[in-house]
Specification:
heterodimer, A: 419 residues, alpha+beta, Rossmann fold, Coagulation Factor XIII, Chain A, domain 1, 6-stranded mixed beta sheet, B: 273 residues, mainly alpha, 16 helices, 78% helix
Chain lengths: 419, 273
């Protein structure tokens, strides 16, 4: 095991990427005919949140006497249905507080459902956290045996795999020291090294990719690839859409205790990304702003949709402006000028704000995902006098769309063919 | 049989062993005398009570009981077990809350592991008791072999209470303090320091009532079996057989209730702690 990891340390990264993309192709394979490992039907779960600190006999008695319940009921999961087949790598995705960790604990039989059913077919080991049962006051060796017991191994079995565990964690010299003297990295290594010994039909993993340095991440990736290769049934909860898209062949997106997307891994990943975007209230779909000074009143609106960005500019002159020009710039959030338009360069028409003062632009939305601001300038045509600069007058953002191109800066391919 | 297999499955026994071992290691690490402390503690209690009540007040001679010091030591180690097992069992679920929130395993293992160290303590203290009894000139009869039955009853009673208290403690932390007071009061309500005959001199009814609670009945039975047959037990002190079995019924009823109560509530420990 450790030999393998050493090899990868000196540069099999590329081949791993190749592996991943191979898995990716494979993952679309249907597992419809496989055995059902986990079946969840109409699952409901709520928690009683105490209003005040009600953990006292007196409080309980007074609440009872007053007829006060002393808690509010919070519905965390509302009617969850899904099925996991043998060999599935099943992703559970959702924003913080969406109920996914509760779902995981229900699957792991740590919590009991209010109603509905969870049937699990086979042995199941949850990793809500690495190193369950680890005690800082015990030595590394003692903790390995404790954790082994948690995973269902007898002392004899742990004896047999002890050397492998230590070697894989690279902690030979530290096993007789107390865990509290370990660095956090060492603790994680030891915990992970124990965890991957688990012999089980179903594995439940919660966010364990989120910790550790690059070398650890690589070991995680290797482990995941191994699980995939061995056709293990895995349930993975994560915020990393990369992990979901790389490993999972099925996924669900949970929001407010309900499944809002379960069609496919790509759809789930996209919808999750969009869900996160829409939380930013700073940038709205449509923004409007105004400017007024001695010369002009100016109003601008920018709206972005999947295909178009609409910009409306309304100019009202307060004193006669001879031969003016209007220009605007679009600036990205990394402060790069993405696009510029100036009236005397792009049109022959002589502007006269007293007659025609409404400008409407439609821009093709070929912008990469991001936030943009709009700057507008009104000057005299000889550039000698500036009547108004607005910076930035309006903002808009380009959101992920159904096309797969959104995460690149350009998508210049017009046509491609395979011969 | 199926239930026994389930309760003592491979994973459960390994877990139980690990929890007990860990508990021991944590409790006695970094102390020079280590485990010896767990026996020195009741021994010192014994020495103090012996000097105050036997040498000073002459309680043993006054009441005319045989081998009073041995009876006192036996009472103390049994009571010590009862008090320790129930207290540790009570805090065990909350103490392992971190574990419960991360992995599913039978919760009763935690409570049992909390009481096992007290049980080991009891057994080792018993060895000391026997050595002491020999020096005190106690003549043993065949009844000594009945002592394990007394221990078993005591363990069942303590475990039942530990299950109930452990469950209550998850919701109401006041129980910790309340139980402390109850244990303290109960100690004086049980014939440990004073021989039962002294109460008899005061009121026969009260001395009979005292014997009906399990710890008193068990301690008196154990004294009868080990120390001398002159000790009063519920069997020779109370004539009515229906009243005689009250202590046993209490243990039985409490055990059954504890199992159901614990089973019903243990499902929600992980979210309530």
């Amino acid at each position: 095991m450790s030999k393998k990891s050493n090899q990868s340390a000196d540069g099999t990264d590329l081949s791993k990427k190749a592996n991943q993309s191979a898995d990716f192709g494979e993952s679309t394979k249907s597992t419809e005919n496989a055995k059902t490992m986990i079946e969840v039907r109409d699952l409901y779960k709520s928690f009683k949140l105490p209003n005040e600190k009600a953990s006292g006999v007196k409080q309980a008695l007074t609440n009872f006497a007053k007829g006060v319940k002393g808690y509010t009921k919070q519905e965390v999961l509302r009617g969850i249905n899904f099925e996991i087949k043998e060999g599935d790598f099943f992703g559970i995705v959702g924003r913080n507080g969406s109920g996914k960790s509760t779902l995981l604990k229900l699957l792991s039989q740590i919590y009991t459902p209010d109603s509905g059913s969870i049937s699990v077919n086979g042995s199941l080991v949850p990793f809500i956290e690495l190193g369950v049962g680890f005690n800082p006051e015990l030595t590394g060796r003692q903790n390995v045996y404790m954790n082994g017991a948690m995973l269902g191994f007898s002392n004899k079995e742990v004896d047999d795999m002890y050397e492998e565990i230590v070697e894989f964690a690279e902690l030979h010299d530290f096993m007789d020291q107390k865990l509290k003297n370990y660095s956090s990295g060492m603790q994680v290594r030891l915990a992970f090294s124990c965890a991957i010994r688990a012999k089980t039909d179903i594995l439940i993993l919660d966010e364990i990719l989120a910790v550790g340095d690059e070398a650890f991440q690589r070991k995680c990736n290797e482990y995941f690839n191994m699980l995939k290769k061995d056709k293990k049934t895995v349930v993975l909860v994560t915020h990393s859409m990369d992990a979901v898209q790389t490993y999972c062949n099925k996924a669900i997106l949970i929001q407010d205790g309900e499944i809002i997307e379960d069609k496919g891994v790509q759809e789930v990943a996209q919808k999750y990304r969009r869900l996160n975007e829409s939380e930013d209230t700073e940038y709205e779909e449509e923004t409007e702003n105004e400017l007024s000074n001695n010369y002009i009143n100016l109003k601008a609106t920018a709206t972005s949709s999947e295909d178009l960005i609409n910009i409306d500019i309304n100019v009202e002159e307060l004193e006669r402006l001879e031969d003016p020009l209007l220009g605007f710039e679009i600036i990205s959030d990394s402060n790069q000028r993405v696009f510029r338009w100036i009236s005397d360069e792009k049109t022959k028409e002589i502007l006269d704000f007293s007659k025609k003062s409404k400008f409407h632009f439609e821009l093709q939305n070929i912008f990469p995902v991001g936030k943009y601001s709009l700057m507008i300038v009104v000057k005299s045509r000889d550039r000698s006098k500036t009547y108004g600069t607005v910076s930035p007058i309006a903002n808009f953002q380009v959101k992920p769309t159904n096309s797969y191109q959104w995460d690149t800066l350009f998508h210049p391919i017009e046509k491609f063919e395979i011969k | 049989m199926k239930i026994i297999d389930k309760v003592f499955s491979k994973r459960n026994t390994v877990l139980l062993k690990q929890l007990v071992v860990t508990d021991f290691k944590l409790r006695y690490q970094d102390s020079v005398l280590g485990f010896a402390w767990s026996m020195l503690n009741p021994l010192f209690t014994f020495v103090v009570l012996y000097f105050v009540f036997d040498k000073f007040f002459g309680m043993g001679r006054m009441a005319g009981v045989e081998h009073y010091p041995v009876a006192l030591l036996l009472g103390i180690i049994l009571w010590n077990f009862f008090s320790e097992a129930t207290s540790l069992g009570m805090g065990s679920i909350v103490g392992q809350g971190d574990l419960l929130r991360k992995i599913n395993f039978p919760k009763y293992i935690i409570v049992i592991s909390g009481t096992i160290s007290s049980l080991i303590n009891l057994l080792l203290s018993t060895v000391i008791l026997f050595i002491f009894a020999v020096f005190n000139g106690v003549t043993f009869t065949w009844r000594v072999i009945l002592l394990p039955i007394n221990f078993l009853e005591m363990y069942a009673f303590a475990l039942a209470i530990a299950f109930i208290l452990g469950t209550l403690y998850v919701k109401f932390r006041d129980i910790g303090h309340i139980w402390g007071i109850i244990i303290q009061t109960w100690f004086y309500g049980t014939p440990i320091i004073y021989p039962l005959v002294m109460v008899d001199g005061f009121s026969h009814k009260i001395s009979q009532a005292i014997l009906l609670l399990p710890p008193a009945q068990i301690i008196e039975d154990a004294r009868y079996n080990v120390v001398a047959q002159s000790y009063d037990t519920v069997w020779n002190y109370i004539g009515n057989p229906f009243i005689q079995i009250i202590p046993l019924l209490i243990v039985l009823a409490l055990s059954v209730f504890a199992v159901f109560y614990f089973k019903k509530n243990s499902k929600y420990f992980a979210e309530e702690i």
